[in-house]
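Appendix C reproduces, verbatim, an entry submitted by the partner laboratory led by Prof. M.T., so that reviewers can inspect both the input and the predicted structure.
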Amino acid sequence: MKIGCPTEIKPQEFRVGITPNAAQEATGRGHEVIIQAGAGIGAGFDDAAYEAAGATIIDTAAEVFATADMIVKVKEPQAAERKMLREGQLLFTYLHLAPDEAQTRDLLASGCTAIAYETVTDRSGGLPLLAPMSEVAGRLAPQVGAWTLQKANGGRGVLLGGVPGVGSARVIVIGGGVVGTHAARIAAGMGADVTVLDRSLPRLRYLDDVFGGVFKTGYSSAGLLEELLPQADMVIGAVLIPGAAAPKLVRRDQFGMMKPGAALVDVAIDQGGCFETSRATTHQDPIYEVDGIIHYCVANMPGAVARTSTLALGNATMPFMLALADKGWKKACADDAHLLNGLNVHAGQLTYAAVGEALGIKTVDPETLI
């Protein structure tokens, strides 16, 4: 199979979909790997590293899309890239379709087959291709939130860990999954007073057993959130409903009960965000203010640490990429129900129910396609 990897064109996106190690694995199995010139530079991989792995370097994205049977990316295809997709071509990347009707309809119109990293599952019910970026984003969230809290950025001017004689910042993490757990660990490690909210009692028990004393836990409810919001210096939104739009958990009318200059860090922004006033921002212009509350809503947070993120993502995606290349998408998905869960679009049909529900588009059962 011809596997193509174009340079990411989303603003301030420095990751790359295929690492040299993954390219070497693919070429060693007899596949042809085509990398756009300079695609790996932002993550610290030059063209020579790919050539040493057996890949072919070509100049333009148009050539990559025109040549490859499978396109492997990091971020969802941008409008210009979607125009280059063709019928029968396989796309393997993050999609986050639920809040993005324009992308969804373009993918349907292209006739391509699109498998989304974020809806591939595993035996334990986890999301193995989302997890590494969730870990990175979770660990980044307190770091960028601490920066947002600085007075020069419009924040409260509060140091997350305080100093002797001055109390530490209060941080609420909404969601106790992968993002929330990593965010809470780092925030607590920076000296903050952290409370994690979740609606799964087994998850709360796990967090309490493993991290008891490091941070506090609470059963997530509207009442408890309203009790905690006035105390919060930072709120990290870490709620995920796989493939679906994120629920809006903090309303604009609640900002009046919060401290002026408090920070909202929305890690769920790829799925539409979990604060009512969230809108996607970029690393170049990451924050904005609404009613005195500072929002950080960068839609590709892990892109800020591109090398770490690329290596972590590449480790997770490589086995699935190789299975798709070795077997073709139908046989690979027939052999692996967890990979089949990643199928979102095929030949003009939407195949992921949560996306269809979010966008009001009819879906088909993916099992009928294999």
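The domain at 2-120+305-369 is CATH 3.40.50.720 (Rossmann fold). Additional entries are available on request from the coordinating office.
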